Amino acid sequence: MSAKEGRNDINTQIKGERKIMKKNTKFVSLTLFVFITSFTFLTIPIVIADPTGPIFMEEMVEMRDGVCLYTRIYLPGPGKYPVILTRTPYGIGSPGVGPDPDDLATWPHEILNGYGYVAQDTRGRYYSEGVDRLFYDDGPDGYDTVEWIAKRGWCNGKVGITGGSASGNTAYLAAGENPPHLEAVLSYVASANLYNDLTFDGGAYHLDALIWTLFQTVDGLSESHVNETLPPWLLPYYNYYRYLIGEILQDLTSNIFPFPPNRAIDSEAWMNLPIIEGNPSFTLLQPFGDEIMSHPSEDDFRNELNVQDTIDVPILHVAGWFDFFSRCTIDAFVNLQYLGNQKLFVLPGTHGGLGELPYEPYYDWFDYWLKGEDTGIMDEPPVWYIGLGDNEWRYADQWPIGDIDYTTYYMHSDGVLNTNPSYGFEDSLSYIYDPMNPVLTWGGRNLGLPAGSLDQTPVVLGRADILSYTTEPFIEDVEIAGPIKVFLSGSSNCFDTDFTAKVIDVYPTEEGGQLMLVADGIIRARYRNSMAVPDLMSGNPEDVYEFTISMGDICQVFKAGHSIRIDISSSNFPKHDRNLNSGGELYTETEDDIQIAENTIHHDAENPSYVVLPVVALEPKVFEGCATIKFPGMKYQGPAEFHIYEKAVYLHFEDQWIKWDIKKYRDWWCVEYYKCKGEMGKLTVYKSHFKDYIYLMASGRKGCKYRVYFYSKESKT
């Protein structure tokens, strides 16, 4: 290609991006940048610490396809150790620059706890070779790295993996390959089914992920990635492409509100169409982003990153109710809990601020699985979660918890939401959905956008394209815990459209009258029956279809005096991409393809619309009282809690848990009988109902070398 042809090609590529460049930004001179087309790195370990003390080494670790990944090794000293691995796209440090041999504060804390620690730049990132394909290679690369570690002379053959967010994704993907020497995983806020469970949510693209993807493209691509992705004659323009992407990123992050002057609808970057190849510089530097978008339907390509059904290793999953990965993390636990070696913590916050764990489980988890120490973590209930609304920790031995009543609340044409079924020929309600004027995002489980339980008042004011349904104020507290699903009977005059739903906690006037978001979800009409096989609607508004909106899981306490409100619409932008209503090929459509949709929600007996909420039963599962324990190596008498769940019972005192599995259960009129077995032997539990109280007594079997007596009462209400 001639230089003239090259210049013309560049002009064509950047033409679509110039319109969103800030006028007051100075041009970055191309003459300041000359790209280095190759680099060398020592593959011999470098020991920079006293050989009798902590040891630091660096290596380029070869993967099965010959690509080498930059890896840093930290050891407590000479010898063999269990090793904890982290693989990350965020950079682990510069080659040749290690921790201070005389200052342990500069070393990973793992070495102070008897572990080796290994950190690795993922493929195509920072100092690793290869091309960054946005997690697609992290399963095999994780497997190869675990097995490489296990064969080193400084490893005792036991390896664990940890990581959060993107690093948590790499941990799940490595676990999905089941390396023989991988013993345990601790993953914070991540996904084991990334493309299906997150990137395409309800069939719609999680557009806010674009902020992260562009940032990853501007910062951190390795020289190897750039050299393999850009043709040689374009290498001198690399910084210019980064500059253009940076301008787009600035536009995106500056316009994330539902109110002026920084509304997403006023952002040329957010509103830019088409999505595939819509930003030519991004396409040049990170072509795999467009590759992902070219798979809008669930297929073999997307399922490569679904490892929920292949993992066979203990995992401690940490989620946040309003975290970007909330649904993904909980889904991973739900799919794997049958293994019996899984644990789940769910915190209250967002991706940028999860909140505090009840205790830090890091070393309790890894000491148990990698060192064989009885830390007590496997005696605890496997599920710990916090309730939104009262901020109290709860426990369960499965998710969803067993003690819930899935309650149907019907939407009625007069805007009422209640448990009375739809009747007769209730009227339908219609609204206009214009893709050029979408409902704007404010709160929820987002990345790069304002997240959490935010007041929806600025979203709904002045809009005629949102249908609302509200319960009467509750007389007493109502708690929900588990998955929420909205079922709609809907129709449209278009071949395709979206339906969105929000669950909202309505505060009484005396408390401010706020509309606080609890959960939200979306379904793309063409994927109403299957995420793998799209099925367009007829475009005849007389044809009624059924739509299911899965909104993920939540634990929310609606306080007395509050109401539950359901809002239905057809957009939640820019959290999700806009459906242009044309029924055309997704993500290749332009403004010329936009259709205005008239969408209708039906409420009659034949075509009802409703939400199913997991309402927690009022009967208590936790009892306070006193316990007396005499057992070899253990003696205690004093206050305690007794927990009864679906599969096991637990005695809790002084931050210690004792577990007995339920082997037999019987219910005789007002008495429930549990026969249990645990490491301390057998336990018999009697739970009796008398008037307004529930009494509980548990005792160890006679003839054993221990005694456990527990007695408690708690009001049913």
Q: Determine the CATH topology of the largest domain.
A: Rossmann fold
CATH homologous superfamily of the largest domain, by name? Alpha/Beta hydrolase fold, catalytic domain
From the spread of the alpha carbons, the general shape counts as: flat
Give the second-level CATH assignment, the architecture of the largest domain: 3-Layer(aba) Sandwich
Instruction: Please bin the fraction of helical residues.
Output: 10-25%
Distance between the termini: 80 Å
Strand-residue proportion: 25-35%
Overall average residue pLDDT: 90
Number of helices: 14
Major sheet characteristics: 10 strands, mixed
CATH class of the largest domain: Alpha Beta
**Could you list the spans in which at least 5 consecutive residues all have pLDDT below 50?**
1-49
Class by alpha and beta content: alpha+beta
What is the number of E strands? 31
Number of domains: 4
How many whole angstroms does the radius of gyration measure? 28 Å
Strand order of the largest sheet: 1-2-4-3-5-6-9-10-11-12
